[in-house]
Amino acid sequence: MILHIDMDAFFAAVEQRDNPALKNKPIIVAGNSERSVVSTASYEARKFGIRSAMPVFLAKRKCADLIIVPGNMKKYKSDSKRIMDILSQFSPLVEPVSIDEAYVDISGCERLFGSSEAMARAIKKKIMTELSLTSSIGIAPIKFLSKIASDMNKPDGLTIITKSDAPHFLAALPVKKVPGVGSAAMKQMDTMNIQYLGDIKKFSLQILTQKFGKMGSHLLELSNGIDMSKVETDYTRKSISSETTLPKDMSDFETIKGIILDRSQKVGKELRENHFLCETIFIKLKFSDFSQVTRSRTLNTPVCSSAAIFNEALALYRKFELKKKIRLVGVGVTSLKDKNTPIQMQLIKDERLPEKQWESVDRAVDSIIEKFGNDIIKKATLNEPYD
Ligand SMILES: [Mg+2]
User: Fold this and answer.
1) 9 CA distance to ligand 1 middle (Å)
2) What's the gap in Å between 28 CA and the centre of ligand 1?
3) What's the gap in Å between 68 CA and the centre of ligand 1?
């Protein structure tokens, strides 16, 4: 069974929790520039038809008493981390999908709590007790259904689709609710009289593939209750990366090098925070004409120090023959390994000595940045190689 949890009006709920003057009021979290859009609307604001991604000026027009609150990403991130930590107390298989949303594979865990419903209630209660926030949970035997279920009784919802309910539920599910079905596909479906997922079964695999490509066969599988997607945990998460758009297009080597260093430190920090090692390092460059390239290198030994990431990223950068000015620089890592996997530790025992030393330097830097912010430490070695 898979559980999907989605916090209710997350940013707005956090603001209402922290400022009693905002309680039960129509509020939106949004920036205050001319072009800002609604990031999150409180349920009170939603009553006026205000939704995420709506331009702020339009939202104001819909509700005269609307209160606009500037966002506080740092606060949301730290609350998000606490929520994910709570989830991982219930199951080791947690896949965060966004700041306020995650899948949890609860197969087998229900036994500890008596039932999956009891487990979901315990999760909701714990989040309420520790963070004073409501959440909505959906549980289903397949992944995409759990997400649909969590959306069904918001806010503070709990919806369970059992194995025996699933076939009936799938048959009656409007196809437009299936993730990935866009308006173009919907038009085609209309001409074929497909309204519910159950209608898909009236067509052969051949016709569905012809009309919808890969999605056709996927839809047929879903209509038969087959969804092979699994909960992807941190451990299997694909990559960590960080990129920055330059204030203006440029090609100055030292400046770009500084940016690569900066991004490498950021990626390294996240890697270490999550107790990962990486095997592959990549850089991404976008040029003044918006074309882009990615280059990667896979190492023999997994690493997690910023120094190792920087050295590889810089080496990849040096290999480019720059013909155009650069607009964006990104550094990333992939092929992540859990740091505590014993085999890997054994594998790298002897080779990692210099890497190990850098790692302890990095950890010290990480904790100082944690305390005093990002600008406090800048490597003095910007003009020298790390080794
Ligand atoms: Mg949400």
Assistant:
1) 5
2) 14
3) 19
Structure tokens at 129: 């007790």
Question: Nearest 5°: phi and psi at 362?
Answer: -60, -45
What's the order of all strands across the beta sheet hosting 239-250?
A: 239-250, 326-338, 276-287, 292-303
Residue tagged active-site, from 95, 101, 312, 355: 101
Domains and CATH numbers, the chain: 2-7+74-166 (3.30.70.270), 10-72 (3.40.1170.60), 173-223 (1.10.150.20), 238-372 (3.30.1490.100)
- Do residues 50 and 26 touch, judged by C-beta distance below 8 A? yes
Arithmetic mean of pLDDT over the chain = 86
pTM over 0.70: no
151 CA to centre of ligand 1 in angstroms: 9
Active site residue 130: no
Q: Is the pLDDT of residue 42 over 90?
A: yes
Tell how far CA 11 is from the center of its chain: 16
Strand partners, 297: 281
Reading the block at residue 143, the tokens are 């992944």
* Residue 190 token pair: 């209309």
**d(C-alpha 141, C-alpha 269), whole Å:** 36
